Description:
Layout: H1 14-28, E1 33-36, E2 41-42, H2 51-79, E3 82-87, H3 100-120, E4 125-130, E5 151-152
Parallel strand pairs: 1-3, 3-4
Antiparallel strand pairs: 2-5
Helix pairs in contact: 1-2, 2-3
Protein name: Dehydrogenase/reductase SDR family member 7C
GO molecular function, one term: oxidoreductase activity, acting on the CH-OH group of donors, NAD or NADP as acceptor
Pfam families: adh_short
Amino acid sequence: xxxxxxxxxxxxxxxxIQDVAKEILNCYGCVDILINNASMKxxxxxQSISLELDKKIMDANYFxxxxxxxxxxPNMISRRTGQIxxxxxxxxxxxxxxxxxxxxxxxxxxxxxxxxxxxxxEFGISVSTVNPTFICSYHxxxxxxxxxxxxxx
Length: 153
């Protein structure tokens, strides 16, 4: 058994993910199970959400999990074992009004991990996607008219 080690990671900061993955692999030697369970969402009309915020949502919900997965994957492939889990959302299957960026990021993640599942079969690596329905999560209440602050984490 290994002593637990806390490693902080902002999944939306793509530039730091490789270093965090290296730190984890240097500490433990391998990752048996990778659970991608970070997410960010915003609620608002498409025309009210800035492109910058759309990009932040994509970084956290799509590029973050795939970047971390790609950083850990070579180790799993070389060992020919491992499990990768994406905790996604039902909105990765169906979109609802006022969640365009969130739904788009979850659709993209679902597509990526569906393809990954097929590719990893020959290496004995299991890839799963979980699509829960609506859940209660931390929410910062925005000031009126301030959609940028309407981020759920």
